[in-house]
Amino acid sequence: MPELPEVETVRQGLAKWVTGRTIRAVEVHHPRAIRRHLTGDAHFIALLTGRTITDVSRRGKYLWFPLDSGDAIIGHLGMSGQLLMQPADAEDEKHLRIRFTFTDDGPQLRFVDQRTFGGLSVSEGGAELPDEIAHIARDPMDPLFDDELFVARLRAKHTEIKRAILDQTLISGVGNIYADEALWRAQLHGARLTDQLTKPAVRRLLAHIRDVLAEAIVAGGTSFDELYVNVNGESGYFDRSLNAYGREGEPCHRCGTIMRREQFMNRSSFSCPRCQPRPRTIRH
DNA sequence: ATAATACCCTGGCCGC
DNA sequence: TGCGGCCAGGGTATTA
């Protein structure tokens, strides 16, 4: 499941492999992969053919490729999307959705996506920051992320803390895995209410979010299966460092209590019953 | 206005 | 072995 560390790992790989290269041709193999490009595949292809990729940028879980035209390719991996560099003679992947070839006849860029929650689109004039993702908050690895603004906005909300840190308009890049990891480190249950947390408590949580994201980037991300890999098809190894996610029935790495799983926001949340007690207050 | 829910997808896995 | 049902969950549209 690509969250910020996985997307950043992909970004770094792409930056090395596609920056400065000129697109010769684009093939769209599945319409759903460009469903967010509202003007259709012919227009998508026309905007890209002959253009040179000048950089690879990221905000949260979104990627974009600025082009020499001033436009940008926007990419989101969704649940199972992959952006792979492949030699031209490599066999097509079963779930190949979009293929880019380049004028240098070097490795192709392929968008592969089993569950089709991800996709690409072109943002006209979006090289600096596409309008389509301007509503996404800066992520905590961004030098311009405003810590105190985040603390204030979070505490102004009336919701559960896990919902808040998964809200990409408040802080971007955090998904279910790293949310559970950061909450475990901060010793907070995800159902704690944002407006009942102190400023220092929120600052501590933010520091843990930053730490866990940074450590995961160093590890190349978290891989449970073949659905997340870097541009060369390799898995990350942060799964070996997880303290919460997926650890139901196993002892807490801090206190030894057996970890629990709870249904939360229609997905699984993992926590320690002792280190992260449920709040006593009833939601209203 | 904000908050919470429904929906989109596929394939691996489980129990019968 | 086959099959129905469940599960993974990011982002957005819809509902409350």
Automatic annotation (TrEMBL):
Keyword annotations of the record: DNA damage, DNA repair, DNA-binding, Glycosidase, Hydrolase, Lyase, Metal-binding, Multifunctional enzyme, Zinc, Zinc-finger
SMART domains: Fapy_DNA_glyco, H2TH
Gene3D superfamilies noted in UniProt: 1.10.8.50, MutM-like, N-terminal (3.20.190.10)
Pfam family name, one: zf-FPG_IleRS
Ligand binding (DNA): 95, 115, 157
Occurrences of domain Formamidopyrimidine-DNA glycosylase catalytic (ranges): 2-118
Quaternary data: Monomer.
Protein name: Formamidopyrimidine-DNA glycosylase
Organism listed in the record: Paractinoplanes abujensis
